[in-house]
TrEMBL record:
PROSITE patterns for the chain: HTH_TETR_2
Keywords from the UniProt entry: DNA-binding, Transcription, Transcription regulation
Xref: InterPro entries: Homeodomain-like_sf (IPR009057), HTH-type_TetR-like_transc_reg (IPR050109), HTH_TetR (IPR001647), Tet_transcr_reg_TetR-rel_C_sf (IPR036271)
PANTHER family per UniProt: HTH-TYPE TRANSCRIPTIONAL REGULATOR BETI, HTH-TYPE TRANSCRIPTIONAL REGULATOR RUTR
Protein name: AcrR family transcriptional regulator
DNA-binding region as annotated in the record: 33-52
Domain HTH tetR-type as annotated: residue spans: 11-70
Length: 200
């Protein structure tokens, strides 16, 4: 009789493989193999395929983990924080992982495989989750007089995402210090929320 599966152990093993996948994609790009991922994780190929049927499935899992972390961020927001504060804190949260030296390689791999249906679907789910949350916060900030009122909340959400995506693209291009540049990104999002100064 097979032993019951320990959910905590299963999740820990999946996270171990996800971390190894990030390392392999950063080192080897789109050509990273499951054998390389297994070596980095220190596990056999049977264990890998028990959790992920393909390398693409691992890539999807990495993207889905990012979406899950985004949901958790918004769900656990400080109830005393204003919507504007949460928006700006989300910008910091969204780019925090870009300081990881593996980020550039992973972003490049996602760009390479982004047209594959399952990966495109995971990217779309991540975008929809983020856009919905940012739109609701932007609308709440507008109602509270903490964000410009002359532009639709959804448009503000799209522009915040555009700024974050552009920041990530510069990280992927190399030679861009995410930690050093994050304060300026947050400042730019604040300026977007404020709108043009009077008389300009």
């Amino acid at each position: 009789m097979p032993r019951p599966v320990d959910p905590a152990l299963r999740r820990a093993r999946r996270l171990q493989l996800i971390d190894a996948g990030l390392t392999a994609f950063a080192r080897h790009g789109a050509g990273a193999t499951t054998a390389q991922i297994c070596r980095i994780a220190g596990i056999g190929s049977g264990t890998f395929f028990h959790h992920f049927p393909t390398k693409d499935a691992l890539l999807v899992a990495i993207l889905e983990l990012g979406t899950e972390e985004t949901r958790e961020f918004f769900a656990s927001r400080d109830p005393d924080a204003t919507p504007r504060q949460v928006l700006l804190e989300y910008v910091r949260h969204a780019v925090a992982d870009l300081a990881d030296p593996r980020a550039a390689g992973f972003i490049t791999v996602v760009g390479t495989f982004g047209a594959r249906p399952e990966i495109a679907a995971a990217l779309q789910a991540e975008e929809d989750t983020t856009r919905t949350a940012l739109r609701e916060l932007a609308a709440a900030a507008q109602r509270g007089g903490r964000a410009r009122a002359g532009i639709q909340a959804d448009r503000l959400a799209v522009w915040i995402m555009l700024l974050i995506d552009g920041f990530a693209s510069r990280v992927a291009g190399g030679g861009f210090d995410a930690d050093a540049e994050t304060p300026l990104l947050v400042e730019q999002v604040g300026s977007l929320l404020d709108g043009p100064a009077p008389g300009r």
